[in-house]
Design goal:
alpha/beta; Hypothetical Protein Ychn, Chain: A; DsrEFH-like; Sulphur_relay_DsrE/F-like
């Protein structure tokens, strides 16, 4: 029995060390879109962000006029569809969230929202939750 304890001691010490080792920190960022005028510029910022930090966890929260680029058929001022860029970023694990309060206030059906986006009850509450409870940094493009 004494031999068993002697052999188990290094294993227990190793397990204790492993449990105290910190997991690698992940860069988490929420991008807040509340206006439609520079949505394509904001999406370019996100693309550049991912090019510099490929493992960043990015969530886009859109509310008010900022949801327009996440609606079917919407195009930028040059006639380029937003959907293509949204699909590209979603493939890079960017999450898109649309404020349901905005949809209701503007009379927009949920079926008009791009499939890459998730509808959340409140955009501002989602931003607050991500920052306060999940440690996301805040960026307003």
């Amino acid at each position: 029995m004494k031999l068993f304890r002697i052999l188990m001691l290094p294993l227990l010490l190793l397990c204790a060390q492993a449990s105290h080792a910190e997991a690698p920190r992940v860069e988490k960022v929420v991008y807040h879109f509340s206006e439609s005028g520079n949505a394509m510029g904001g999406l370019r910022n996100i693309r550049n962000h991912l090019d510099a930090s490929p493992n960043a966890q990015i969530v886009v929260v859109a509310l008010g006029a900022g949801i327009d680029f996440l609606l079917e058929g919407e195009k930028d001022k040059n006639g380029n569809p937003y959907e293509v860029v949204v699909q590209e970023l979603a493939a890079r694990h960017v999450q898109f969230r649309v404020c349901n309060n905005t949809l209701k206030a503007r009379g927009i059906g949920k079926d008009k929202v791009l499939p890459e986006a998730t509808i959340v009850p409140s955009g501002v509450a989602e931003i607050s939750r991500l920052q306060a409870l999940e440690g996301y940094a805040y960026i307003k493009p």
